[in-house]
Automatic annotation (TrEMBL):
Gene3D superfamilies: 3.30.70.260, Periplasmic binding protein-like II. Keywords: Amino-acid biosynthesis, Aromatic amino acid biosynthesis, Lyase, Phenylalanine biosynthesis. Pathway: Amino-acid biosynthesis; L-phenylalanine biosynthesis; phenylpyruvate from prephenate: step 1/1. It comes from Kaistella montana. This is prephenate dehydratase. One of its GO terms (molecular function) is prephenate dehydratase activity. The keyword Cell membrane does not apply. NCBIfam families: PRK11898.1. Its EC number is 4.2.1.51.
Amino acid sequence: MKIAFLGPQASFTQLACSQIFPAEELVPQSSILDCFNAVKNSDAEKAVVPLENSIEGTVSMTLDYLYQFDEIFIQSEVIMPISHHLMIHPENENFEKIISHPQALAQTFHFRINKYGNIPSQDFSSTSASAKLVSENPQDKIAAIANHYAAKLYGLKIIDENIQDFEQNHTRFIVISKKDETLQLNFKKTSEKTSLLITLPEDHAGGLHQVLSVFAWRKMNLSKIESRTLKTGLGNYFFYINVEGNWENILYKNSLEELKSIGAEAKFIGHYNEYELED
Ligand SMILES: O=C(O)C(=O)C[C@]1(C(=O)O)C=C[C@@H](O)C=C1
C-alpha cells in the first residue's frame, strides 16, 4: 500500500508516517496539496499530513484542503513531540540566512530573534527540504531548522539544540483517505472523536448559538472549534468542529439532519481515534 507524506526523507511528517505505517511504501510529496492530490487521484491509498501544532496552532493549508476536497476522510490522528535544531553545513562556521518550514520558523521565533536577531529567515516547503538544500549548497552559507534525523541524513552540524520557544511542543498529524474507515493503531489511545465542517445559515443574530445548541441539548462534548475563512469575502467562515466520543449514538448522528434543517451545512469528515507517538 502506498502512503503519501510531506517529504523529503526525515521531515517530521515522515517520522510520524513511518511509525504509523512501518511496513508500507512511503511516497514523499513536495507539498501538503500534493499529498491531498495523491489520495484524490488514487496515486496513494492514504496520506499523512500535519494538522495542528501546540505552539503555532493550525496548519491552515491542511484545514483548507479538508474543506475544499470532497470525499476525503480522516482515519486517524497521532500526536508527536517536536524538537527543532539549528544546523549548518560542516564546512561552514557561520551563516547569513535561516531557512525552514513556516511552522518551524514560527515555533522558534523568539529563539531566533534573541540569538540571531539580524539574520533573515526564509520559508521552505519542509524542514527536511531545508536541511537537504543546506547540505547541497555549502557555498551559500545558510542554516536550516530541522530534526536530528535530518541533520544525520544530510550530514549537517547541529549548532543549537532544542530551540523551540516552549519546552512542550507537539504536532498533530492526520491520516487521510478516500475511505471512511477508522484505523486501529497499536499506540496509546488518548481519545475518540468525529470531525465536522460546518457553514452557518445566512448571517443573523444567534446563528452560531443555534448551531451549537444542536450539540448542546444532545450533550455532545466539543473538544475543538476553529473558524477559517471561506475565501468568498471578509466575514465568511467555515467551522472545523471535533465531537468527543462514540459516533454510533443515534442522537449524535441525527444532529447532522437537525443542522441541515436550520440551514447550516454540515460535512462529516471522519470518526477516528487519537494516539500518542514517540519522538
Ligand atoms: O516540515 C516538516 O518537517 C513537516 O513535517 C511539517 C511540519 C508542520 O507543518 O507542522 C510538521 C511538524 C512541525 O510542526 C513542523 C513542520
